[in-house]
Amino acid sequence: MNWGKSKNPVVHAGLLGGIALVAGVFLIFGNMATKQSIKDRQHEDLVRSLEIVIPDQLHDNDLSAKVMHVEDAAGQLHEVYRARKASKVTAIAFARTIHGYMSIHLIMGIDASGEVLGVRVLSHEETPGLGDKIEVVKSDWITRFDGLSLQNTPRAHWGVKKDGGMFDQFSGATITPRAVVKAVREGLEFFKFKRAELLSSDNRAIDKDVGGAGS
Question: 94 and 81 in contact (C-beta within 8 Å)?
């Protein structure tokens, strides 16, 4: 029988079903084959990000090996990675997703005194040539948070110059820097609010093994 020329709808349904089944099997095996590779790449990205916002001299532990989950004042849960030197917590780092024109994924490091060690953009969907100046490869704008804290920078200064603050805005893209400035200040407020818990030395009680996967 010529299956391709058959007018029997049952035959055509069977052929389509068979093709869909084969395609599904290939997709399942493809996903299984790449799942661990994707997981490994995500972990590598996490390690690189943590190394950028927490200097080597502040820790002797594997920054990405353990994570703690801490709830902020608004009830949002944060994954926090802690730097230790001789078992003492010296700094923390955590990521945040915020919204400028589009989504912006940031990571920031804060030392035990509450000063910003570094802020970097992990990914964003801002307009090229405008909002992308938050990337350190495009501009040094984001490095201006280094060394700032709630103690040495009055609340009124935490804004773009257009709003009376101290940070430059971007021509044609004020929303993006405004969102980042707000996110960094809120990150410092989160640290202040949860300082005792974040700097606790009882790692058995609150740090959890990541198990080799980034998140």
Answer: yes
Token match 């707000």: residue?
182
Q: Mind giving me the DSSP string for 43-82?
A: HHHHHHHHHHHS-GGG-SS-TTSEEEEEE-TTS-EEEEEE
The helix/strand/coil state of 196 is helix
pLDDT in tens, 179-202: 999 999 999 999 999 999 999 876
Rounded to whole angstroms, the Cα distance separating 106 from 119 reads 7
- What secondary structure does DSSP assign to 167-199, as a single string? BPPBTTB-HHHHHHHHHHHHHHHHHHHTHHHHT
Distance CA 101, CA 117 (A): 26
Q: Where are the domains of the chain?
A: 51-209
Contact 185, 193 (CB under 8 A): no
Q: Which is nearest to 125 in space by CA: 137, 116, 135, 117? A: 135
| Average pLDDT value over all residues in the chain | 81
Phi, psi of 3 (to 5 degrees): -65, -35
Pairing of strands 103-111, 88-99: antiparallel
pLDDT tens track for 75-94:
888 999 999 999 899 999 99
